[in-house]
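To make this tangible, we now present a fold written out as tokens:
***
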Amino acid sequence: MSFGYTETATVWTLTLTGGSGPFNPPTETWVRSEIKAEWQSTNETRKDDTGAEFIPRSVYYSLTAAPKGARILPGNIASATPPANAETVRSVDSGSAFPGDPVEFEIVTA
């Protein structure tokens, strides 16, 4: 599926920094970024990486991947941390329509 990718979606990815053992655990930090994407709501059953079926909240299409477990929302959201209504990325698939075309990512949320 090829889109113009003219809309903005905000992605928050959880990163771990520092830490050196059980008494000094790593610090969790959300890293905010924006991607160009198109999205739609769907009620089609999907499968995640483990084969478990689920009904997604949304499906985002982009030339930029978002990692599984990241949070995502449509629009340019200024918050440094994901709001409570942010969708969680549950699966990411990729492919291209024709040889030589850019790789497109299907980011499915729950």
